[in-house]
Design goal:
13 helices, 16 strands, five-stranded parallel β-sheet, single chain, alpha/beta, Rossmann fold, 2 domains
């Protein structure tokens, strides 16, 4: 069949190669065209066979996964789904891979033991199929920008006049929080989050809550990464954390994040919602109940429709909503689901532009209060 999704599987474990190959080859629309047991072989296969997708283990002999990924992105851009282990070190490397152009990741196992074969099969099939629909044209990775001392996500979003007015407004400091920005993201989210937060003003006065679909071992590393690459202070949320201006709380993996009337975080192990915990819908609805018209919902790149209900709920409470545009999304499923359900949206654009609108909305509100 000419329309099969052609896949190269790269892993230093022959067992994992056979397992992933059997999952994919059992379906009529997949064809594993090569299996590689080391990094050099993996890159050679990608360059020679030009597959539609690569599944890439990040721990391989010969050439480590990050090196393979960067060479792929530079010389033959191809959608890559990385295979990740657990633990903080694995999470750090996996997030580096996402920053270097990988589309998504799959965990071989979880803290409770090995993932069941059926669960792993469903996940690999879903993510490889989704990756095959993505056209990768980015050849410059984040790491190549970093070597030049450049922030690749910083856009000229504010004029000098606007920046000075935001920075030199002493009456805004130490005021109670009047608004909360709730950001939901999934596949492709870490890069989009970096781009958005990088372009907020230095003293953004609203609190930020981030719900990124990720396992528990990854969200703390994500928060540290956001703090490193942006001027927003980010941390993984803990129970009873208090919202602060110019700060972001990241919902911890495997917990729903809610907000009490006292603006303190409540973490919950409630049932999965649409297969997710944390759920973007749950957090958005909880925040809108407390902050009403002071709530701003931002839905970024991702598969599925988590967040669509939350965005509609924010609008019913008088808040504002923003969607990442289709062209800048890795996967546009989540933002598009809001449009398909008829949800009203205040702005659609790339993450840097959403940051500009959020900053201008803040400045406009301050000017109105001043008058």
């Amino acid at each position: 069949m000419n329309n099969r999704i052609r896949v190269v599987v790269a892993d230093d474990s022959p067992f994992v190669c056979r397992l992933l190959s059997s999952y994919l080859n059992s379906l009529s629309d997949f064809q594993v065209v090569g299996t590689a047991l080391n990094g050099v072989q993996a890159f050679d296969f990608v360059k020679e066979l030009r597959p539609d997708v690569v599944t890439l283990d990040l721990e391989m002999p010969g050439m480590v996964g990050l090196e393979v990924l960067e060479k792929i992105m530079q010389e033959c851009p191809t959608p890559v789904v990385v295979i990740s282990g657990i633990g903080r070190e694995a999470a750090t490397v996996t997030l580096q891979a996402l920053n270097s152009g990988a589309i998504d990741f799959i965990m071989k196992c979880n803290p409770g033991g090995m993932i069941s074969p059926d669960t792993l099969r469903q996940e690999i099939v879903k993510k490889v199929r989704a990756a095959s629909q993505i056209r990768v044209i980015r050849s410059l990775t984040r790491r190549s920008f970093e070597r030049k001392g450049v922030n690749p996500f910083l856009f000229p979003t504010h004029t000098t006049e606007v920046r000075n007015e935001l920075r030199n407004n002493p009456s805004r400091k130490d005021e109670p929080i009047k608004g909360v920005v709730v950001i939901g993201a999934s596949t492709g989210g870490p890069l989009a989050l970096c781009e958005l937060l990088s372009n907020l003003p230095d003293d953004f006065s609203e609190a930020i809550i981030i719900v990124q679909h990720m396992p528990g071992t990854f969200t703390r590393v994500l928060a540290a990464q956001l703090s490193r690459y942006t001027k927003i202070k980010a941390k993984e949320a803990e129970d009873r954390d208090l919202l602060q201006p110019n700060s972001a709380l990241v919902a911890p993996g495997d917990y729903h994040m809610l907000l009490g009337s006292d603006s303190r975080v409540k973490l919950s192990k409630g049932p999965l919602v649409k297969g997710h915990r944390p759920s973007i819908d749950v957090t958005m609805q909880s925040v809108a109940q407390v902050y009403g018209s002071g709530t701003k919902g931002v839905l970024l790149t991702g598969m599925g429709d988590d967040g669509s209900i939350g965005m509609v709920f924010i609008r019913t409470k008088g808040g504002k909503t923003y969607l990442q545009d289709k062209d800048s999304c890795v996967v546009s499923g989540m933002p598009q689901s809001v449009i398909e359900k008829g949800g009203a949206v205040d702005h659609i654009g790339p993450p840097w532009q959403i940051a500009k609108i959020l900053a201008m909305d803040q400045l406009r509100a301050w000017r109105e209060n001043k008058c």
